Every structure is written in structure tokens, then in C-alpha cells.
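Friendly challenge for the regulars: who can give me the C-alpha cells for this chain first? No prize, just bragging rights.
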Amino acid sequence: MKLKEYNKETCRRYQQKRATLQISSDGKISFNLRAATILNLKEYPNVTFLQDEDNLQNWYVKVEKEGKGFLTKEYRTHGRNFYSRALATNILQSVNSGVSCKFIVSPHLMENSDLYPIITHSKTEVR
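First reply, four minutes later:
Bragging rights claimed.
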């Protein structure tokens, strides 16, 4: 028999490997270190969020190279964040949640675009 161990340490390491975005109901929007690295937010710290008007649960992140968009700021060594209550409310309402949520951010650009999909079906509510 070969057993795989699950505990605080092994699960934490597994979650840190994923690029995630946490959206708090108070308006704080945070990219974990993995997501910030994939999106290259240290060099280009501004982001824009886009919603598919035909499928309101589909959201995308675009890294802005010209300075427009929301300016993310480094917080400790955990990634980058910014505040927008309006954006957070719109995203959380589109996925039928009234509480803070964490989502996976795709590490791959959409085909023929400069958009990173937010995997809203991966929603994990954070309390």
C-alpha cells in the first residue's frame, strides 16, 4: 500500500503552486505570488478586468503596459493587491456569492489575445 499524506503543510504547498486571485467583499483584490509572477506584475503593475457580456460569469485579467488600469501594490512577500469595491462586488455577484472568494487564474493567455482567464468555476468561498 502506498499512502499520500494530507496535512497543513502538504496542502499549503499544493495551493501555493496555483496562480490564484482572492476577491474580498470589502473590495480587496489580491493576486498570490504565483499569479503575480505569471502576469509579470512587478514590471507591469497595472491590470484591467474584463467581463464577457454574453456569459457574465466569464472574467479575464489584462496586464496593462501603458499605466492605465488598477495599480497593484506589493504586499509583504505574498503577491500584489489593490482595492475596488465596485469591481469586487460585480465579480462576486456574477458568481452568485456574497462572501469573499478565491479563484484560479489561468497561467496561459487566451488564444490570439492578451487576456488571462479567471476560472470562476474554481470558486472557493473564504470566510
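The two ends are 37 Å apart (CA to CA). The chain has three helices and nine strands. Your move, everyone else.
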